[in-house]
Each structure stands twice: as C-alpha cells, then as structure tokens.
C-alpha cells in the first residue's frame, strides 16, 4: 500500500482568471504561476517579492509562506477565533486560507483545485437588516461553540490586521452578505478597547480613526473614506475598500490587485515594525522610485510620515502602507488607511503611555534611528530626506506646509464633528498637533 499523499493545493484566481497554485508538501510550500497567466493581457505578479522567473520557475519556502501569511489577521487570538468558527483544524496560513481565502485583501481568491469561481461577473447577496448586522458584529469577537453552526456566518473572508473586523457588500443602497464569488465592499471595524501591557484606553478608537482620516485628508493625503455607524448597540467604523470598484456597466465588482509593504518587501507579518526587521522609510522610499507616479507617491509618503509624527500616530508600520498592482508589472501607491492618534493616551496617568516611551513605527534617521516621538526634531527630518534622495529643500517645504496649514486643518475638521463626538478626544488630538507643530517651527537644525 503506497504512502498517502500529504500534498495540499489551492488555486489562485484573479477576477475569474486562474493565476497559479499554492501547495504545501512534506518538503515545504511552493507557489507557481500558470503558463497562460504569463501571457494574459491582465498578467502581473502577485507581489514585487514574487516576480515572474525565467522558465516560470516556482517559488519555494518562507517567501511563499510570508506572502500568504500577510493576508491574515496578525493577532493570534483573532486567528484562533477564526479557526474555531470555521473549523480549520489549525491556525497556520494554509489551513486558515483554505477556508477563508474566497475574499482576500486585493484581487486574489484561493479555491480548492476542483472549484472555479463561476459567478464572478454578477452581484449576488442577501440583504441584511440592522438586527442581523448587529448580531454579525457581536459574533465577530466570539468563537463558535463546539458543534454550533450559524448559517449567517458562512461568509468566508480574510482581512489582515490586528483589529477585530468583518466586511459586507454595499449594493443598491443596502447592506448585504455576499454570496459565491461576489466580494465585500466595506470593512466594519470595532472599538479596540484596552490594549497593550499598559492597557492603554482605546475604547474610542472608532471616533479616533474617523477623526484622523478627516485630518489626513485635510492635509491633502489620499486616505480611505470611512464613516461611524451604529447598529443597535454596536458602534463601528465602516471603511470603503479601495481594492474594489464596480465594472463599467455596474453588473459586477472588480477586485483590484494590491499588496502591503511587508508583502512587497518579502517580510513576515511578524516583522511589520521596522525595529523588528520590517520595512522603514528608506526602503519604502526606494521602492516607490519604481511607481508609475514616483514623484507624487514619494512626496505623499514622506509627508505622511511627518503627519504621523504631528498626530503621534504610532502604528504606521509596513502593513499599513500598500501599493496597487497595474498590468505588466507596473504599480503605484494606494491611499493610506488605519491611522490612529496616540495623543489621547499619552500621559502620566492610569491606562496611559508615558511621553518618553511613545514611539513611531518607522524610525526617522538622523545620526542614528530615532523612534521616540519626544526625541525627533526638525533636523532629523531634513537628514532623513537627504539620505533617501528626497532633498533638504523638499523636506523644508513640506514641513512649512504642515506648520502653516495645521490651524486651518483643525478648524475645517472641527466643523465636521457631530454633536455627540467625544470632545475630550478631539481636544487631545488637536492640542497635541499644535504642540508638535510649535516644536517643528522652533527647533531648527
């Protein structure tokens, strides 16, 4: 009797076109593009870290694992809940994506060999009322009990990140649970609660992220559109996906290829922070030299880093920046996303981060790497700009733009605040921004 095969395989699809396959064997993991995909008019690599190879040679090992691992939540507790709910048999990337790979970030779908996404070019879904959306949000933070099966939870999707979230389809003005290959169009993010060993209070993270999105947009940086919504007692931030767009005739929804900077640089999600070996400002600025809009993308990325410092946005790691893949290997930066200010939780009280410990996710390089927000000064931004070929004059111009526009940004955004918006949250963020702009203006090289 022969040895039972331990090879497992998933085919990779992109908008109804077979792209390649991902398999796991006794020897490890392997990714190979299909020959027909290489000559397709829509052909493009899945990742900058996985370009087409001579002779269409396959990729093997950790670089394959890391690419697919980055499609999943990087929080182990969330992975365990997903594994229990969908009975995956484990939490490794292949096990999870075999069940959750029908609706990934970007354009790919992962399906068993015997299955084809036959209903890609139509929109199918079940309309959900407020009560069912509220229940879905409640279920997002709970694991399915053993033997329990809720047919309303048949939606199989994978959304990267460390926050509790789910996703739905918006169609003809109604929220729907998509069926078959119809993708989700909006992500629903729940409040973070108390986070980290200091138990920093982020129970207003929904309002915080909404406010930060308005601030970043007012500074002129493209960012995902989002709104605060309530479904019964459930508060959520509803974020419009920029990796989805309707077809020209509106009959189906196109998945847009993209990847985050960890995927693009071949980094594990465990190394999303620069201090852990993940991508930093210099590596991303170099990568953006190859963008179809290199000058604008590099300018926006550098300005975003300055804005993150002004906002004390401490979680701007490699997974929170992405590129969109265009045909024939071209690419450009996507809008930014997932911006939260730490100003409300920086302080000396309970559930607060001491000011001397608040760090950026990516270092500003002066004579050394500066992560601590308190330590970063104007001259460090100038030095960083020079080191990445952006130039001192360009950095000075961006710094002055931010200093001169901040009061107007705060005034404009203040007019958008709803009457029930937490005033202490807004005031903490606005006052922190002003304080940092004063430091930028007064501390010179």
From TrEMBL:
GO CC, one annotated term: cytosol
Kinase is among the record's keywords: yes
Pfam families recorded: Couple_hipA (PF13657), HipA_C (PF07804)
Matching InterPro entries: HipA-like_C (IPR012893), HipA_N1 (IPR017508), HipA_Ser/Thr_kinase (IPR052028)
Example GO molecular function: protein serine/threonine kinase activity
Domain of life: Bacteria
Coiled coil regions, renumbered to chain: none
Family as reported in the entry's similarity comment: Belongs to the HipA Ser/Thr kinase family.
UniProt-recorded name of the protein: HipA N-terminal domain protein
